[in-house]
User: Which sequence fits this backbone?
């Protein structure tokens, strides 16, 4: 029972409360750069998810033998080797996507969300929880990437899943949805400033939802107000 | 209710925001009239469309934010923003350009930052830049002056072009921009810029029909109209003289140096002054009290920097005109400029070392 609660908490943290994309604001560089289409976003999100799970598991497995002083270089080395694996795999099987992601694929190494999880969670917890944490954090990141990619693609080109064949193979061309036809692309949504604006709106939306929930809560548990004051997150 | 931000002393004109905004809107009339006379009904249609969009957007956000709708909706600031956007758009741009621009200006640039008085950027110019980088084709389809056009263009035609992209007789935007001799006409600034890349001198460019006898058919009068409106505003003490003066002086110095260096590849100062958005920017955009610098010294630095940037963008940049970009960059610099141009408090010296001299 207690273990179940722990997993629930991890999932909640990764997907919503401590989401690497819209709460921790980690890994913004790939988040903003490659989300011009949904396909790119999914590609990078999956790559990050894979690296995050593997690195969390490995870091957690060797946590007892890693000297504190040189833990960061070792984490980076582990992450870099998994990123290399992903990069080679994508180069082999999804070459088009590999080309459109460009430099941001190898740059997953420097994604703070990954090294942050290795440092903050995986290096202190057993393998099972650490890999589950990696999965949830990666899913949270993937979710935000997909949302950003979808909104920007619809605003910018009026399509969804444009170029999905790059990721999923030939059959995926049926996935392409033409939401509406545009005579001219809305370039702002595709360019980086659009990513910042959409991202800002997402964060605002998340905060608004949290506020709503927080505002609805006290009616039922008025006696716990003192706890709200102590807990910074729920303010 | 006055939303004025100003450094001390506070004995400036104590008008209400709405009165000042109304005065600025009135001051655009000569320029808008010249636009109507030389370029047809397009800008007037865009201005009306922008005002409607801005009011709807403002109303929506204000009701979402649970603000005092009546007082803030009609304080004139959103109407002024809309008028400025409508003036700066190409006359035959499609209707959705105005709608996107005005909603972006009001919702994102103004209200998301906290409403009037809190926006770091000039809403009209931020919207203009968004449109320019998002829809380069539509935003550079400038209409040539009516007298040079091969096709007639009345009110119904203009409205039809803006709504559907074609006149009532079925002519497209491209056909409207065509000279009697069959080539597409650009703005004077664009003409000079393109001709320079083709190896033509300024003197040769000046013979182009769009430039006419002085600095640009129509454009010179539109600029003169805005100059007139600006002088009226200075006379009414609605705007401070320092900003436009410093801006125009800065362009004068830059273009004079360039002109003296090489007359064949640099247009004269008056060409720069009376083309594009120079006069409009000097008197109506840079003087925005919210996004500009506050002290007189700060305004001089702010506007001089803008003038320098306009010249650099016009000369070396990818776009023929750069007032909007220059204004946005200077808006970003305004807090820093304010930091270093703080007026001396009465009774205090700037630094102890200078106290002996006074």
Assistant:
């Amino acid at each position: 029972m207690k273990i179940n609660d722990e997993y629930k908490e991890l999932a909640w943290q990764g997907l919503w409360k401590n989401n690497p994309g819209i709460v921790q604001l980690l890994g913004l560089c790939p988040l903003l750069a490659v989300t011009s289409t949904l396909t790119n976003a999914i590609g990078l999100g999956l790559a990050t998810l894979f690296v995050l799970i593997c690195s969390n598991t490995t870091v957690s497995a060797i946590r007892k033998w890693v000297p504190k002083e040189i833990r960061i270089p070792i984490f980076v080395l582990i992450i870099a080797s998994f990123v290399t694996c992903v990069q080679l795999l994508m180069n082999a099987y999804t070459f088009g996507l590999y080309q459109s992601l460009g430099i941001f694929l190898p740059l997953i190494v420097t994604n703070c969300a990954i090294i942050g999880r290795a440092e903050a969670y995986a290096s202190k917890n057993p393998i099972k929880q650490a890999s589950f944490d990696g999965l949830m954090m990666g899913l949270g990141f993937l979710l935000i990437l997909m949302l950003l990619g979808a909104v920007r693609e619809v605003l910018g080109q009026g399509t969804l899943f444009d170029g999905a064949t790059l990721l999923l193979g030939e059959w995926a061309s049926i996935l392409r949805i033409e939401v509406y036809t545009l005579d001219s692309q809305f370039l702002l949504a595709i360019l980086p400033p659009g990513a910042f604006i959409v991202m800002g709106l997402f964060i605002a939306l998340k905060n608004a939802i949290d506020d709503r929930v927080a505002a609805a809560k006290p009616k039922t548990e008025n006696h716990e107000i003192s706890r709200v004051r102590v807990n910074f997150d729920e303010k | 209710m006055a939303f004025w931000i100003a450094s001390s002393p506070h004995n400036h004109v104590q008008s209400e925001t709405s009165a000042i905004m109304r005065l600025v809107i009135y001051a655009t009339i000569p320029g808008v009239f010249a636009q109507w006379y030389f370029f047809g009904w397009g800008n007037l249609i865009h201005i009306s469309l922008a005002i409607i969009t801005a009011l709807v957007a403002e109303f929506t956000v204000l009701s979402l934010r649970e603000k005092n709708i009546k007082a803030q909706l009609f304080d004139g600031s959103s109407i002024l923003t809309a008028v400025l956007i409508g003036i700066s758009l190409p006359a035959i741009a499609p209707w959705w350009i105005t709608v996107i621009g005005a909603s972006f200006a009001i919702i994102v640039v103004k209200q998301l930052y906290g409403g009037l008085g809190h926006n770091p950027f000039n809403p009209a110019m931020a919207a203009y830049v968004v449109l320019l980088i998002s829809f380069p084709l539509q935003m550079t389809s400038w209409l040539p002056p009516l007298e040079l056009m091969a096709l007639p263009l009345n009110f119904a035609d203009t409205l039809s072009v803006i709504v559907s992209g074609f006149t009532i007789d079925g002519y497209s935007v491209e056909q409207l921009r065509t000279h009697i001799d069959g080539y597409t006409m650009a703005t004077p600034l664009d003409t000079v810029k393109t001709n320079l890349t083709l190896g033509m001198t300024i003197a040769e460019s000046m013979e182009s029909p769009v430039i006419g006898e002085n600095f640009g058919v129509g454009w010179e009068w539109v600029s003169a109209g805005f100059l007139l409106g600006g002088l009226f505003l200075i006379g009414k003490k609605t705007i401070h003289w320092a900003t436009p003066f410093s801006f125009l002086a800065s362009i004068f110095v830059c273009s004079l140096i360039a002109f003296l260096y090489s007359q064949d590849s640099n247009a004269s100062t008056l060409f720069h002054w009376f083309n594009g958005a120079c006069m409009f920017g000097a008197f109506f955009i840079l003087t925005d009290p919210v996004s500009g610098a506050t002290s007189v010294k700060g305004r001089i630095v702010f506007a001089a920097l803008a003038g320098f940037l306009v010249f650099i963008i016009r000369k070396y940049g990818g776009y023929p005109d750069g007032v909007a970009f220059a204004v946005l960059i200077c808006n970003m610099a305004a807090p820093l400029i304010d930091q270093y141009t703080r007026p001396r408090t009465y009774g205090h010296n700037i630094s102890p070392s200078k106290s002996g001299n006074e």
Remarks:
- Chain B touches chain A through eight residues (CB under 8 Å).
- DSSP finds 18 helices and no strands in chain B.
- Confidence is low (pLDDT under 50) at residues 354-358 of chain B.
